[in-house]
Specification:
Layout: H1 2-19, H2 26-35, H3 39-43, E1 48-53, H4 58-71, E2 76-78, H5 86-95, E3 107-111, H6 117-120, E4 125-131, H7 139-142, H8 145-157, E5 163-167, H9 171-174, E6 184-189, E7 214-219, E8 225-229, E9 241-249, E10 254-260, E11 263-265, E12 268-269, H10 275-289, H11 294-303, E13 310-316, E14 319-324, H12 329-340, E15 346-351, E16 380-386, H13 390-400, E17 407-409, H14 413-421, E18 426-431, H15 433-444
Parallel strand pairs: 1-3, 1-4, 2-3, 4-5, 5-6, 6-9, 14-18, 15-16, 15-18, 16-17
Antiparallel strand pairs: 7-8, 9-10, 10-11, 10-12, 13-14
Helix pairs in contact: 1-2, 2-5, 4-10, 4-11, 10-11
């Protein structure tokens, strides 16, 4: 009866919230868990789960895996809304199960918050775990990187039979494989992305084993790349799934060679930015771990379209608006590197919020390489800042070298959209998490926009 009651309440709250236009993500799950704390274990019974965690790239990786499952005819569902805490994951399992708790699907693709993984993994039958990367993230939520790693380690230890897919280029991620009995599949990128890239502080400059300083054969971004320690010999393992060549990094797509064990393919990913190539490789590792054919994986990569806010493109009149979520220094620098390596004139708008889902500590913006904008600022016809903490972002840009006259503060999103599209040019909008939802709502007043959970 507790399961049935919890299911009724969860489904009801989800329905009411969506009718109200709020989507319905964590709240229904929170209500259900109050009634039945172990509900997720009941709902997950008989469902084989592929779980994706890590600092950056979880949503895009999850969506590519979901497309692979669809093409392979696997009966599956996912948390498309991006609600990746225990409450949100419980809610999505609830919406895909009967009142008695029996799921109508055999598989699930679940994006999971790094800190939540240790708890979520206690309830689900996880067949495959993907760890995309580990970077310093919202300090008020995650603290130091060691806390994030400890949570992920605990989650992996709760999955003794799972295939573990790790980023070979991330020294922190690779260290998770030590003493694991699990099958490990490594994915990585064998070449740097850009000639011109943001200057970044490394989150892992020193060897996790002996504290010696890493040397690199190459870097892709942040601390990712061909690392090795001269002192103890700890180094990047050979990648089972490897991006061996990058042919094109276009404003709308990436063209590259992908080696899946002994077979080579040349997929085109319909997303810009070198960092998204990592997401494609991570998804390939997960689907290989499920035993799917390489050709199916490549087909999924080529069919995939951007998820909400992740390089999502909107055409409004003569303007092309690209919405690109940013939430930490590593991800922000990668978006800036992508923009810096395009050759079109543009407007740049940054929207900074400090709500709970964004992280209330915004000190991380001082680790973003905004200084790189100075060398290319003639390409921009305007710099705009918005959001709850717009003035702090404007101050950061001022310290980066832009003048007060070059920085325009518009806190109202409807007004911001109207201003940046009026000249019919390319617009890059870089919002934090809650600002992304609010900006998408403003865009929905001008053109059809899918709900974020669709």
């Amino acid at each position: 009866m507790r399961v049935i009651t919890a299911q009724i309440l969860c489904k009801l709250f989800s329905f009411l919230l969506r009718i109200a236009g709020r989507g319905g993500t964590n709240l229904p799950g929170r209500v259900a868990l109050r009634v039945c704390p172990g509900l997720l274990g009941v709902l997950g019974s008989g469902v084989s789960v592929t779980l994706i965690t890590g600092t950056n790239g979880k949503t895009t990786t999850s969506r590519i895996i979901e497309e692979s499952f669809h093409l392979s005819g696997l009966s599956s569902f996912s948390n498309r809304s991006g609600a990746n805490l225990l409450t949100g994951i419980t809610a999505v399992f609830s919406m895909n199960a009967s009142l008695s708790g029996k799921s109508g699907y055999s598989h699930a693709v679940i994006e999971c918050d790094e800190a939540a993984f240790k708890n979520v993994s206690r309830y689900l039958k996880i067949e495959t775990v993907v760890v995309t990367n580990i970077f310093r993230d919202q300090l008020d939520r995650y603290g130091e990187i060691t806390h994030t790693m400890d949570s992920i380690k605990t989650g992996i230890n709760n999955c003794p039979d799972a295939v573990i897919c790790l980023n070979a280029d991330c020294s922190l991620t690779v260290s998770l494989a030590e003493d694991l009995p699990n099958r490990i599949i490594y994915f990585g990128v064998d070449k740097p992305f850009y000639e011109y890239a943001a200057s970044e502080l490394s989150d892992a400059a020193y060897c996790i084993r002996c504290k010696g300083k890493y040397d690199y054969d190459y870097t892709t971004y942040g601390h990712l790349g061909g690392f090795h320690c001269q002192d103890c010999g700890y180094k990047r393992p050979n990648a089972d799934i490897a991006v061996t060549e990058i042919y094109t990094l276009d404003e709308d797509f990436s063209d590259f060679s992908l080696r899946i064990f002994d077979d080579s393919y040349r997929p085109r990913l319909n997303l810009p930015g070198g960092y998204n190539i990592y997401n494609a490789a991570a998804a390939a590792a997960a689907t290989v771990g499920k035993g799917l054919d390489g050709a199916v994986i490549v087909d999924a990569i080529e069919r995939f379209k951007s998820s909400f806010g992740r390089a999502e493109k909107f055409l409004i009149g003569e303007s092309s608006v690209r919405l690109m979520l940013v939430k930490n220094p590593a991800g922000f620098n990668q978006v800036l590197s992508y923009i810096a390596n395009t050759d079109t004139g543009a407007i740049l708008a940054l929207a900074l919020n400090d709500r709970l889902a964004d992280g209330t500590d915004i000190s991380w913006i001082w680790d973003v390489d905004f200084e790189m904008l100075l060398s290319i600022k003639e390409r921009f016809s305007g710099f705009y800042v918005s959001g709850v903490r717009a003035h702090e972002m404007a101050l950061r840009l001022k310290y980066a070298g832009l003048t007060e006259n070059e920085i325009h503060i518009i806190k109202d999103y409807d007004e911001l959209i109207a201003e940046v599209i009026k000249n019919g040019c390319t617009v890059y909008i870089l919002p934090t998490y809650t600002a992304m939802f609010e900006i998408r709502h403003a865009l929905s007043k001008l053109l059809p926009v899918k709900a974020f959970y669709e």
